[in-house]
Amino acid sequence: MSTMDNMQKELPEPKDLSHHLSRTTRNRQASSIKQFYKYFSIPGIGQLAGGLPNNNYFPFDDLEARTALPDRWNPTPNIPIDPPSGKSKDKSKDKSKGPPESHTVVPKAANTTDVLKRIDLASALQYGTAQGYPPLYQFLRQFTTQNLHPHIPYKDGAEIILTCGSTDGFSKCIQALNNEWSEGRDPIEEKEGLLCEDYAYMNALQTANPRGMNIAPVGMDDEGMRAEGPGGLNDVLSNWNYAKGKLPHLMYTVTIGQNPTSGTLSVQRRKEIYALCAKYDVIIIEDDPYWYLQYPSSKSSVPIPQKSSGFAFLDSLVPSYLSIDYEGRVLRLDTFSKTVAPGCRLGWITGQPALIERILRITECSTQQPSGFVQSMIAELIMGPAKGDKSGSGGAKDGHGWDVEGWVRWLEGLRGEYQRRMEDMCDILDRGKTLVKSGRRKSLSGLAGNLSLEASPAATEALANEDDWSVIETAKIYDFIRPLGGMFIWVRFDFTSHPLASKVLAPRLSRALWIFWTFPQYRVLVSPGGIFGASDAIREQDAHNCFRLCFAACPRDDLKDISTRFVKGVQNFWRFKKVSDIDELLKDEDDGTAAGLDATAGMGALIGFC
Amino acid sequence: MSPPSAVEVEAVDDTTGVTIPDPFSLPIKANEIHGRRRKTDKSQWMLAAPAYSSSFKSNSSLKSKPKAKRWDHRLTLESHSRKFNSIKQAARFLGKPGIISLGGGLPSAEYFPFEDLSMTVPSIGAFSEHETAESGVVIRAGKHDLREEKSIADISTLFNYGQAMGSAQLLRWITEHTELVHAPPYADWSCNMSIGSTSALEMAFRMFCERGDYIISEEYTFASAVETAKPLGINVVGIKMDAQGLLPEDLDTVLREWNPAERGAKKPFVLYTVPTGQNPTGATQGGQRRRAIYRVCQKHDLYILEDEPYYFLQMQPYTGANQPDVPPPKNHEEFLKALVPSYLRLDVDGRVMRMDSFSKVVAPGTRVGWITASEQITERYRMHADTSTQGPNGVSQLILFKLLDEHWGHSGYLDWLIHIRLEYTKRRDVILDACEKYLPRDVVSWQPPMAGMFHWLRIAYEKHPHYPQKSIPEIEEEIFMESIEQGALVMRGSWFYAQNDVEHDTLFFRATYAAAPFEQIQEGIRRFGDAVRISFGLELESREANGTNGNKA
């Protein structure tokens, strides 16, 4: 018997967490019609029972796409080297004749009876199973349990179910594990809670809010959620105020390239947080759309995997909470939104089988299944047709699928691309962090008069000396940490360094700065920190200092230019010396009393998709 | 009893306080719609641009109609508390020329591994699989067609994140189609895409119903609707039906006599109904019936969830075995006129949320449908979708847009629907012919279905030799097992009870003619007939019939 089998044997059963299931989810039963299915397979039976439409009436004979080859993008090395070699030219730069492509074809009917290999429109466009399109489900299950999380420390490992993207996945997790609570109807002791980072993905919190959940923010540092210290997880849970409701039993967390702060949680921190979750019986919902976007150039150490995934790239990544989940209290959300395209509305949930089964029941009575076009196209791209079947064609050059190797290579290439974008933007942002006042005397004199509260007498004196060019005042305007992962740079401003700091409150300066960036000479939109603040306290006290920049979306060729414009906007904004300048910027904002907040919420809807 | 006519042409003069527009006086015709489109700002088609039906309705639709009733008193707290995000402020900035967003976390389209997408689809008028193989057309969507001004929809836009209402491109077509077919008689109706009607129904339940509430439905109903309601703590009260489905008198009685103390729940105010080709009974409510039901709904202030997957599976009138067929509709007007008016068309109050689906008329795997209701309701729906399903997948939206808007247009789509109508008519006629041939008429009876996919067979259990020693469920079980023994699978009527705890005095089986090849439909019915005969101890007449017809199969 191999050591692997021995290892399997010693693993504990996942913990029974059914006491956390919501009333609605506990009540769910397998669809009664499903009990019928056993009769469907009787050979030669005259099928007059099922309610499926005839696939002859689907008006699609085939679906074809010109698709990328897995090696389209240049990867960056897995181990940090100095200097970063990411700047090499890649194939995509040759604009004259476009990058090489493959031709992916989903036929109307494939020539195979193997349901796990059959990829065609006749099956994909029909009503299907809630678990997912069989071939794609099979591929993802294998990829998840063997490559992505080769070691999940509970008996028999995890199960998966496909979703219509991670928003849908999260909504189903919440439906499965949370009882709705209404003020006035339900006693306060029954109000449940959701733990999350101080700054979090708003859309997730908006799933929880209308269900009457407490949002319980946990303090963060550069890595992400903190386990210890004031405001850390231990503090929040051990000092929970029961007057607000039940001790939260759910946690929403983005652990890699956290949105918006781009923290990446170390294994050590994961263990600390997991131990607390085990102690307080909290289920972790780990949303990791950016897991494969980890940037070694920002990193000092490489984790050593417990068990190899078979791919150096995957081995080099910080592993999921699943890798330490010996109790089965982690539900992980994955998505194709960032690896293929968001419009796919396709993702999957990984977790202990008993919880996945409950989510399957929810799926049967709600979303049913992801799009058949999408599932068959992605299955064909990655898996390709069954051996010897010429009716379809996969995403590799020779008509096979990309296969696991190709899929991992594609992810590696994307990581390379995003890493280069990140580095370009960070380099430019680095150069604009400080304000150098190398003074024209006229304005400085004016300034000195205004700044009597702040400037030291010595500085005032120095400024007054018009010949003294050696006195150059520098002030740090903003700072940021180079992201270890994800798509965002979280920029924190110090508005006390602004010339008008004593006259205009920081939130107002922040708002004016945001508007200023939209002016013709800058034309940059960034996300204000307020749309990520998990509580009113955070929004009111700190969020205005922060902005989130996404380096993923803008055209590659414009990236440096936009970053430069961002910096110029900052530099010029720090030259404003009159309160009336700020008033002028905000003149459209001041018509309503709460317009600013409303606008911030609206911003979330429009630009905060992820 | 002569079969009811499958085509319901109702006079409009019998209405009491309900004005129904004559289908003939529709404000627009299918082939005119494109020409009437309002000129639009290009930004409307851009990435994740919000879109509203109101931008796409014809001007006549907006004019001089009353606004829908408000439903604040019916919405759940959960739905009320969904935050409305005023996007106007932000949109003002996004609209600035040349502005580039570092705000949104949308991935760059450069990294989508798709360069173009193409599919072979039927050309107009040559709709069958066979014809498509010969004369099918390849339609293609490129990655940057919008930027290159080749199309208003492309991969880079629709494969990215979108809004919960769906893309403007497809929403325009859907709105126009809805206006063409249903012309809702109030001003502020609007459409919002769904990811299928099961999902839409689940969301509607959560918008209107609290734990412990009752909803109303047909006494035999779509099993999945009950299964969606049950775990939410929602109970179902079934209303008696006849050949035309739900009975308005019984609906009124149940509501009038509702005793909250006895029922342990407040008087229900949500009606869930499948008015056309109902699943499982195949019943279609005629125009008069719908008006009568609508009046009861007005009287008791009900909100109607109209689930209409089979609306366009309305068929030609059944003329009987070996009788000449009714000629197909000559033109679009005749086709549209032959359709039973929807509740949406009758909905002067704005008390209907209609659920449409592409599942039965295009393909279930598209996972695209839409709801139509007053703006208040679609807005709540949108807020809900934002944090759960989001909009439908962009791949299906792009494919449907290319097919329905650019390739077929409204006019070609109506031709397709006529094609589907005639195809289902053929299938329905095959099963009815087989029933007449193979079923024992003295114990099995049926109404020819006028729409949908299902044939509902009534068993005269009282003639069963072991009745009443054997109960109705036992006889049902016996016939079901015998049918499997004979090699035919049909659905038991009891699977579709709205209320399992109520005793039923009817016994039905459901057979479908939607999918199986013709010979298999005939053979399946023959076997089922044998099963009934065996159970009832009747002579197996059809054995001989099989001897002569057997070669066919």
Automatic annotation (TrEMBL), chain A:
List, for all copies, the residue spans of the domain called Aminotransferase class I/classII large: 120-388
Highest taxon, organism lineage:
Eukaryota
Which stretches does the entry tag as region Disordered? 1-28, 68-109
CC cofactor:
pyridoxal 5'-phosphate
Question: Is this entry keyworded Transferase?
Answer: yes
Keywords, alphabetical: Aminotransferase, Pyridoxal phosphate, Transferase
Compositionally biased intervals (Basic and acidic residues): 7-19, 87-100
Family annotation (Gene3D superfamilies):
Type I PLP-dependent aspartate aminotransferase-like (Major domain) (3.40.640.10)
Q: Which GO terms describe its molecular function?
A: pyridoxal phosphate binding; transaminase activity
What are its GO biological-process terms? alpha-amino acid metabolic process
Q: Does the keyword Transmembrane apply?
A: no
Say which family it is in. Answer: Belongs to the class-I pyridoxal-phosphate-dependent aminotransferase family.
Protein's recorded name: Aromatic amino acid aminotransferas-like protein
Per the UniProt entry, what species is this protein from, by scientific name?
Tothia fuscella
From TrEMBL, chain B:
What biological-process terms (Gene Ontology) are attached?
aromatic amino acid family catabolic process; lysine biosynthetic process via aminoadipic acid; tyrosine biosynthetic process
Q: Name one Pfam family in it.
A: Aminotran_1_2
The record's listing under SUPFAM superfamilies reads:
PLP-dependent transferases
What's the Enzyme Commission number for this chain?
2.6.1.57
Cofactor(s) needed: pyridoxal 5'-phosphate
Give the primary localization class. Answer: cytoplasm
The cellular location(s) given in this protein's UniProt record come to:
Cytoplasm
Q: Give the family this protein belongs to, as stated in its UniProt record.
A: Belongs to the class-I pyridoxal-phosphate-dependent aminotransferase family.
What is the name of this protein? aromatic-amino-acid transaminase
- Annotated source species: Tothia fuscella
